[in-house]
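Methods: example folding runs. The two proteins below were folded one after another, and each record is reproduced exactly as written to the output file, sequence line first and structure-token line second.
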Amino acid sequence: MIEESVLAAASLLAFIAYFTFLIVLHIFPTGKNPLYNTISDYSVGKFSVLARSSTAINGIGILLLLAVLVQVVGMPPLTRTGLVWLAILALSRLAMVFVLTDLSGQKVTPQGIAHMILAALSFVAGVSAITTLTRNLSTFNALHGIYRVLMILAEISTPLLVIVFVTVLLPKLRRWLGLTERAFLLTINAWLLILVGWTFLYTIRVVH
């Protein structure tokens, strides 16, 4: 079995790389509008490799977090439901690396439809995973004050998801889709990053 600290460190590095890649994508001249274009739109164009790599790294980081949570926290307090949702989130993210979106104004393709389904699945899985795991971790006292932050992020994830779906469905609001999606993804991944950081510190005995 791989050492808990190694898994936690690898997961933490993956999340740091993911956020770094996203920042770089928003600095480079991609021609995308952060208010309107979704993160998936960056996977189509000259910076496709960087964008798809960030998605792949994100999925891998989530899988590593899943593995370290099972070892560090265990079942109970974790439940199969929360872990399954986390696995679905990771796998849907990895699948999106190979199933690209259709850009706005382009012909709708079967691949684009499949991407939309995967994106919706990953969004629902993200909310379901962090809300379920937050409830599971309520009895895990080693989290201390971090749990309060996790709880707040979990609580706002559902309304943010609703807002994303509303901006997708209502044409007049679609120009804000990029902004609402980024707020949602930041919430989900901030929750994951905080827990990843805590698991790393816990495995190297910095926190108890």
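Second run, written to the same file directly after the first:
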Amino acid sequence: MLGVLNFECILDDPDQVYTAGDKIKGSLSIHLRSPIAITGVTIYFKGAARAKWCELMDNGSRRTEIEHDKEEIYFDDRFCLWGKVDDKGGWESLEILEKGSHVFPFLYRLPHSLPCSFEGPDTFVRYTVQGKISGRDYEVNTKEKPFSIFKDYDPHLENSCEGDVDSVYSPIEDYTEKSLGNGCCQTGHVSCSLMLKKQIFVPGENIIATITLQNISFRKCGSCNMQLKQIVRCSDSCPVVVIVASSKLCESIRPGQSCHWQGYEFTVPPTCPSRLDMCKIISIKYCVAIDTAFDDFNLYAAVPIVIATIPETGTEVAKWSYRGSQSSKKGAYQEAAELPHTEFAPKYKVYDYLPGQTNRDTTMLIDLPHSPGQSKRQHRKSNLDNSVICNDDDKEETSLKAAKT
């Protein structure tokens, strides 16, 4: 509208992070270049989860793709900040807003049970507020203002109630091995092992890993990365994997080499906890993975972990703060099909650990004597050592003996 210079929704909380049951305080601010006639001012609050996915169905010789789109509404409220509504839902009043700035304050209490905010591929749990000014023949809307809902998650309490405390504190390990070659012609093998001392972490905490890579083959491998992966599942659909964070361990490993990392540190970034309470259509899990690239395959080892929001008892932390999810900021979810998209990174609790909580990383690079490459080099060397080197006289004598025979 020509008379409106700016119309926006302002929240008083600088972090714009709330918990279930909190009061959201803010205002609708409008700046006019000329007077306008309005009939009412309305504000909308909405909280919902939505997921969209495709399912392939086999019908004999044909395959049919079925699209699913589910939504859960947690609240969808509308309030009149100014004006009067008649029995038919129309506006009764009409007033002239003069040139300049005008503010319409609001206060809204959130419901007492809500899932944590989340933005994922073709999925979200999103909370928004939006304002609207209405006239006789026009409407002016603010942009949807997203805000974060945060909910603490402490799996230690769950496991203590179930009597399974030791399992979450026990080390967890994965080992994978692949033989190279075809049939009877084997050219060696490659292997990877990953071990974590525990399974529960909070954002800001260092994941301390022990990693071993062995390349007992003639092939040179590519880069090796440690990754934190988020596995998002909608109902019974196939999961979608998102790389939340990645750290390069090494550029490559030559044939016959073994790399070992003892106490390798990998910091958990701001990310959604492993449980979305109250949300029935989206589930989230995490794993730490080692991904090593070869020409025609990837060597992969992974262990499941749990992202919590409350550190272990006795852990010393300097402070915590709310920070935006890095994966959302990087646009990892911008290809969210036909779902409404917003450039918004939900904020989560992140802890700043004291310097004493960190360990030193030890890396070892070993040439394996029993590798195919090493054996081949030793065989060549032994052949050279056992060979006879003839001088010119020897050659002449040998040729004469051959002629006589």
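Comment on the second run: The chain has five helices and 24 strands.
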